[in-house]
Write a structure and sequence with these properties.
single chain, 202 residues, mainly beta, four-stranded antiparallel beta sheet, 17 strands, 0% helix
Length: 202
Amino acid sequence: DAWSSQVHAYDATAGYLGSFGGAGQADGQLSGPKGLALGPDGDVWVADSGNNRIERFHPDGTFVAKYGARGSDFGEFSDPTAVAVAPDGTFYVSEAGNNRVQKLSASGQFLAYLGNHGELQAPHDVKLYRDGSLAVAGNTDRGRVYGVRIRATGQADLLRVGAPKLAVGRDGKTLVYGTLGILYADEGGASDLFFAYRAEKH
């Protein structure tokens, strides 16, 4: 909840379980969080956008750790918008301010990044596929919205759609959704192609 700077928990029937966070800069506090993810152990990872860091919590809301600080160096963040956590604890962070996605180890050490050739513009969301592929969505400077899938082989496939958010289903397919509409994109099957396009509004 970006407005209250909290994370709210609900059960499968939408019953309210509790909240954690709260506005501030101290450990365990948040400032306008924009994204969260569940780790393989059930921990909750939050893109604490206003504080330019990633915070990690146990499911009960207990603070565990924080990663990063404001900046443009490796391991630093500028407006982190989303986080995705791999089974081995490696995590990926999309940054609208630095136009990139960083890959960090389970302990927060910088490993690699994407965006050094201008292929990403203000990425809003990042998701992981079970095969290790990475999906990223964001806006371009012309008002169009893009998605790009980076496969484990290193191949990057472009997906241009009118939507800034992604969801990867258990069947490996991608639901792209947001302000300009919804596009349900197939994983691509045996093909390496993962292309779609929606014309921008004029």
